[in-house]
Specification:
Mean pLDDT: 85
Radius of gyration: 26 Å
Number of strands: 23
CATH class of the largest domain: Mainly Beta
Oligomer: single chain
CATH topology of the largest domain: Jelly Rolls
Largest sheet: 6 strands, mixed
């Protein structure tokens, strides 16, 4: 039989009592907690900044909606916040530059650090604010209409899956003004990313505002076709929405909306990734209509450079792309996209007189968190300006996400290939009012 000193029987119950007191949100003396508590200090921070993603059914790996959810991750929260990984925000700009900026104040960070350091105490349940209420299944809120793939798609257990295309008729008999749009995968485990295009013949009549650099936007033919047709016809298309790791629903500011012409079709471009077991997916597109009787039109487009080559082993290759504005315009948001070798982005606006000014810097690009950067004060772009994009890539062995640093990398759809792609939300400028002659209209 093991022998125990009298000290053991004195100290161990004290430790148990101390642990019980901490679990109940009290210090060892039974007085007020010796640090921040979940109910009073931490829950408000998590509710405001974290639970939109950290809740059941969303993209984050764990829920943070309750104390029991959050308590086991107290140290991980401290580390992720301290290292700047959470909340995920990768642009560098003065606070207030972007409408959708994610971030914590220094005071909020210190609360989380001290909470983890002092036992992650629960606190008094009376201090707990009401938990946020989220719509069931749709981050943007309840859609006015849901458009769904007409049948489920079976994703094989393994192998490379080329892009698949699905077509969903809208049956719109009149123009629709869209205030918000969300792509909702039926199975997040196998949907790597998805794009929703809108195809409608009246779009042929839309006035041109942008002129892309055709020398850069020359797509190579796919090495292999998917099992579904890539195009139903040659009806022009516009990018309507995207889904990728970390992408939020597209919610436009009040007074603006995307116009959809009648008779259009939603074209889904789906990138599936096998995960070792067969699965099915049936992705949906949710639309909310504008309540404004005469909203300002927002258009969605993109530009890219498909001629890129990243030399094997290169740790700092730069690839540029640009687009020209042939009319005055307003830019609402910019969406940079590369694959796993991308590490940094910069955007400059070159004015007609040749002067340049920075408009977006993303020094810590993260493929796992792809963001549409929405300007609080939209960019006013005069006719003849160019938007210049530059992306930097790390194709070396030092990049832990690099699938193979020994090969040159070119443009391609799969994540082991690369892209230099920019999404753009813009509007034609509103012409200044024409002065009326004195004495009224004649």
């Amino acid at each position: 039989m093991m022998k125990y000193s009298r000290l053991f029987f004195v100290v161990l119950p004290a430790l148990w009592l101390g642990t019980i007191a901490l679990a109940n949100g009290q210090g060892s003396s039974g007085t007020a907690p010796r640090g921040p508590t979940y109910t009073k200090d931490v829950a408000p921070i998590l509710f405001r900044n974290c639970t939109p993603c950290h809740r059941p059914g969303e993209i984050a790996p764990m829920s943070l909606l309750t104390y029991d959810d959050a308590r086991p991750h107290a140290k991980a929260i401290r580390d992720e916040v301290g290292e700047g990984h959470m909340p995920p925000w990768h642009a560098e700009a003065p606070k207030g530059t972007f409408l959708n900026e994610r971030g914590l104040t220094d005071e909020e960070k210190q609360v989380l650090f001290r909470w983890a350091a002092t036992g992650a105490q629960k606190g008094d349940p009376k201090d707990l604010p009401p938990a946020p209420v989220y719509p069931d299944g749709w981050a943007m809120g309840k859609p006015d209409v849901v458009l769904e793939m007409e049948e489920s798609y079976t994703v094989p257990a393994d192998g490379v899956i080329e892009y698949e295309y699905f077509y969903i008729p809208t049956n719109f008999t009149e123009p629709k003004w869209i205030q918000a749009v969300e792509l909702r995968p039926g199975n997040r485990e196998v949907v790597h990313h998805a794009l929703a295009f809108y195809r409608a013949k009246p779009d042929l009549q839309r006035a041109a505002v942008l002129r892309p650099n055709r020398d850069q936007m020359v797509l190579p033919p796919p090495a292999k076709q998917g099992t579904r047709p890539q195009r139903r016809d040659q009806t022009p298309s516009r990018l309507l929405a995207s889904y990728a790791p970390g992408t939020n629903p597209q919610v436009l500011r009040p007074g603006t909306a995307i116009r959809l012409e009648p008779g259009g079709v939603i074209e889904l471009q789906m990138h599936y990734t096998a995960n070792g077991k067969a699965a099915t997916d049936r992705t949906k597109v949710g639309l909310q209509f504008s309540k404004d009787p005469a909203p300002r039109e927002v258009r969605v487009t993109h530009f890219f450079n498909s001629t890129l080559t990243l030399p094997a082993g290169s740790a700092d290759t730069r690839v540029d792309a640009d687009i020209t504005f042939v009319s005055d315009a307003v830019v609402w948001g910019i969406f940079p996209h590369t694959h796993v070798r991308g590490k940094k982005w910069e955007y400059m606006l070159e004015l007609p007189d040749g002067t340049k000014r920075p408009v977006l810097s993303v020094p810590r690009y993260d493929f796992n968190w792809q963001t549409y950067y929405m300007f609080k004060d939209p960019l006013q772009v005069p006719k003849g300006s160019r938007l210049l994009s530059s992306a930097w890539y790390d194709n070396s062995a030092a990049n832990k996400s690099n699938p193979d640093p020994k090969v040159d990398v070119k443009w391609g759809d799969q994540t082991w290939e690369e892209m230099q792609y920019t999404g753009l939300l813009f509007s034609p400028a509103i012409p200044a009012a024409t002065p009326q002659p004195s004495g009224g209209v004649r």
